[in-house]
Amino acid sequence: MTPQGRIWIQGAGEMASGVAWQLLNSGYRVVAAEMPGPKAVRRLVCFSEAVYAGTTTVQGATGRLVGAATVAFAAGEVTVTVDPEGSALARLVPDAIIDARMTKRPPVRPLLAGIPVIGLGPGFVCGRDADLIVETHREAALGAVIAQGAAMADTGIPGKLGGESGKRILRAPRSGRFSSPKFIGDLVREGETIGDVAGRPVVSLLDGMLRGLVHPRAELSAGEKVGDVDPRGRAIDPALISDKALAVGAGALRALALLGISGDPSR
After folding, report:
1. pLDDT tens digits for 87-110?
2. What is the C-alpha separation between 62 and 140, in angstroms, rounded?
3. Most CB within 10 Å of its CB: which of 38, 189, 205, 267?
4. Which domains does the chain have, with CATH numbers?
5. Sequence-distant (≥ 6) Cβ neighbours of residue 246 within 8 angstroms
6. Treating both helix axes as pointing N-terminal to C-terminal, what angle do 14-24 and 243-258 enclose, rounded to 10 degrees?
7. How far is it, in rounded angstroms, from Cα 40 to Cα 12?
8. Pairing mode of beta strands 55-58, 61-65
9. How far is it, in rounded angstroms, from Cα 56 to Cα 64?
10. What pLDDT, on the 0 to 100 scale, is given for residue 140?
């Protein structure tokens, strides 16, 4: 393979950030394009946090916000930009696009004709809107590269952590912004009020640790995730990339290798 390694990742949430982290550490240059007001919950491991803060650090890797008009591929850090439509793609012409928006439905349109696309999870079909797909479901072959067909369909059920699934997810009771005196990493009790959305309380259904909380400036719709309570409590570190995101990142590396696109470890 000839080192090229300029990769555009559409999305900068949890799975996208696991991929970006793996690629950065394998010598690729990465731009991660987000939407304005991102709604990531596991913010300590999401490069999307740079949209709010300007810079962020995910497990030792820096993410830096740059405007879409001047964004460029840089060595040594993940470049984050607000560009949900991929307006900078035609100017940058990356070696590959990784669609990591995790919408779980088919993309509206190709991001840029002629550039190979790797899709994460359900919604993509090889040959229709992606060249390769990386499986994101734990009950399937997590991280596997799919060259024909599609990934496992979305079940609509959150993955289990510490034996719990749906009860661990905190959701907005109405539209608005989430406000809370709590911080990611705090321990909470079942029945405890974690915060509120436009005056409506958000109550934990479990004892555990706040593994994630949405940014207070994010505009939410009723039913959207505002937090994640991990019943394993102090046994986990909310600032560490999950094994799932790392497995998906490893799958993205394998997919790029199949496409003949390598990073440059000397960078």
Report:
1. 999 999 999 999 999 988 888 666
2. 32
3. 38
4. 2-155+243-262 (3.40.50), 166-231 (2.40.50.100)
5. 18, 22
6. 60
7. 9
8. antiparallel
9. 7
10. 83
The tens digit of pLDDT for each residue in 162-171 reads: 677 789 999 9
* Helix, strand and coil percent figures for the chain, each rounded to 5: 20, 30, 55
Residue 245 three-state SS = helix
Whether 131 has a pLDDT exceeding 90, the answer reads: yes
Residue 113 binned pLDDT confidence (cut-offs 50, 70, 90): confident
191: phi > 0 → left, psi -120 to 50 → alpha, else beta; which?
Answer: left
As a residue count, the chain comes to 267
Q: How many CA atoms lie within 13 Å of 146's alpha carbon, on the beta-carbon side? A: 25
Predicted local confidence at residue 2, as pLDDT: 45
More confident residue, 10 or 164: 10
What gap in Å lies between CA 138 and CA 151, rounded to an integer?
11
Residue 187 CB neighbours (<10 A): 13
